[in-house]
């Protein structure tokens, strides 16, 4: 796996793992803030953007 991702050391692999976890945590926090702001109502979509379908949505628990 480290070769596939071109990671040269265990430190590089751990750093990449932490980077990905941080990015995911930031995305989850942002989605919760948006959900809280709109208090359960659907957030408006920008002009020209179609609303997400059930298949597009990933449930955050």
Would you give an account of this structure?
The protein is mostly helical and 61 residues long. The protein is 48% helix and 0% strand. It has 1 helix and no strands. The protein has one helix spanning 10-38. The longest helix has 29 residues, at 10-38. The radius of gyration is 17 Å and the shape is elongated. The mean pLDDT is 85.
Offer a quick outline of the entry.
This protein is mainly alpha-helical. It contains one helix and no strands. The two termini are 28 Å apart.
Q: What would you call the shape?
A: elongated
What summary fits the major beta sheet?
A: none
Radius of gyration: 17 Å
**Helical percentage:** 40-55%
Task: Please state the structural category.
Answer: mainly alpha
- Whole-number mean pLDDT: 85
Number of distinct beta strands: 0
| Percentage beta strand | under 5%
* Low-confidence spans: none
- Helix run count: 1
Order of helices and strands: H
- Ends apart, CA distance between termini: 28 Å
């Amino acid at each position: 796996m480290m070769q596939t991702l071109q990671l040269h050391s265990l430190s590089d692999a751990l750093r990449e793992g932490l980077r990905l976890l941080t990015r995911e945590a930031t995305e989850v926090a942002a989605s919760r803030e948006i959900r809280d702001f709109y208090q359960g109502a659907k957030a408006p979509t920008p002009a020209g953007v179609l609303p997400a379908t059930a298949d597009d949505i990933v449930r955050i628990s």
